[in-house]
């Protein structure tokens, strides 16, 4: 007896389900993405008590150290001051912070933008 348009499938057994789940777990475990951390963060300092360049430098260093201690949970290899603006009696600092893998990512982006 022939049937048209139908296909015969084997019933799914518990063993085939277990094998399929194990294969999915193995693929997921082996395909973990590389983690690269790149963070751009803004912090601010009060300029009311800053009288000279030495105090300004100390205030900026203190603000950066505070960000690294309290806001960042990875070990940075790059910390750059991207921008600083004074608004009233406050200075706003824009920091770029990256770990080793993030540093490589930033270098790759820089290389792409430099090419014609």
Briefly characterize the structure.
The protein has 116 residues and is an alpha+beta fold.
Report on this structure.
By secondary structure, the chain is of the alpha+beta class. It has a domain at 38-114: 2-Layer Sandwich (Dodecin subunit-like). Helices cover 43% and strands 24% of the residues. It has three helices and three strands. The protein has helices at residues 14-30, 53-70, 100-114; strands spanning 38-46, 78-87, 90-98. The protein has a three-stranded antiparallel β-sheet with strand order 1-3-2. The longest helix has 18 residues, at 53-70. It is elongated. It starts with 13 loop residues before the first helix and ends with a helix.
Return Rg in Å: 27 Å
What series of H and E elements makes up the topology? HEHEEH
Strand order of the largest sheet: 1-3-2
Q: Indicate the CATH topology of the domain at 38-114.
A: Dodecin subunit-like
Percent of residues in β-strands: 15-25%
How far apart the termini lie comes to 69 Å
Structural class: alpha+beta
- Low-confidence residue ranges: none
Gross CATH architecture of the domain at 38-114: 2-Layer Sandwich
Number of helices: 3
Helix content: 40-55%
Major sheet description: 3 strands, antiparallel
């Amino acid at each position: 007896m022939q049937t048209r348009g139908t296909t015969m499938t084997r019933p799914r057994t518990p063993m085939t389900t277990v094998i399929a789940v194990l294969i999915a777990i193995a693929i997921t475990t082996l395909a973990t993405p590389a983690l690269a951390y790149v963070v751009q963060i803004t912090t601010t300092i009060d300029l009311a008590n800053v009288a000279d360049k030495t105090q300004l430098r100390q205030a900026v260093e203190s603000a950066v150290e505070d960000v690294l201690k309290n806001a960042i949970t990875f070990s940075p290899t790059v910390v750059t001051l991207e921008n600083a603006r004074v608004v009233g009696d406050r200075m706003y600092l824009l920091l770029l912070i990256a770990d080793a893998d993030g540093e490589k990512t930033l270098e790759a982006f820089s290389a792409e933008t430099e090419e014609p």
